Amino acid sequence: MNVGKERRLKRIFLNGKTVIIPMDHGVTSGPIKGLTNMQDIVDKLVLGGANGIVVHKGIAKTIDTKGLGLIIHLSASTKYSLNPNRKVIVCSIEEAIRLGADAISVHINVGDEKEPEMLESLGKIADECDRFGMPLLAMMYPRGAKISNEHDFEAVAHAARLGAELGADIIKTNYTGSVETFKKVVESCPVPVVVAGGPKAETTREVLQMVYDSLKAGGAGVSIGRNVFQHENPSAMTKALVAIVHKGASVDEALKILGEV
Predict the structure, then answer these.
(1) Which candidate among 79, 88, 169, 196 keeps its CA 20 to 30 Å from the CA of 25?
(2) What is the pLDDT of residues 217-257, one digit of tens each?
(3) What CATH number did the domain enclosing 10 receive?
(4) Does an H or E element contain 46, and which?
(5) What was the pLDDT predicted at 2?
(6) Range of 69's domain?
(7) Residue 99's closest CA among 55, 52, 49, 143?
(8) Residues 148-159: tens digit of each pLDDT
């Protein structure tokens, strides 16, 4: 691997595992709960021991990451778009480098009618990332008219493998619902796979169990947003995730950190 990529990845991964908190939602959904004061939530994530955050370039200019790995998101669309699943590129690799990024991320909705354009962008960006020594995180989601279940094993495995095939260094994708099926996703993807958090979950145990199971299946960690920054105690929730991902804690042990058992 490119020396620059290796050095940057070490700022995000600890012994092959990572806890990333994506907070790029302000572009898609506006200043939602938990993301009204970005420095405040960053400070809470630092306290919790997160490894990295995902933000857009404008936010990257205004926050002090205080040592967190900085992943700048290049993709954008809004909930008001006629096709919100169509992501366009709004930042360059060079701009991300100027902002001190440790990695960049792109979002691809596999199955959308604009999939060809998004894949074309992914391929070009992967090439640029190799040229600049910048790690590429690809958020690969099965979403489109032919996708009846975004957590279907075959669809998720295809999306993950697609991202790796086109040059991503890390894949973020949906959990498939069981250790057995997610293990197949991980085994068929030649680069690390981190699990997405999805919509705000009904219970904290549900989130932590998913994380625990994804690691048991061979996953490389998490990239969870709403279920952290919208939690009543983001620092403690981050600590709970760190305990599972980096310290091998059980779900019950992680819940004790949150005072929920």
Answers:
(1) 169
(2) 999 999 999 999 999 999 999 999 999 999 999 999 999 99
(3) 3.20.20.70
(4) helix 38-48
(5) 85
(6) 3-257
(7) 55
(8) 999 999 999 999
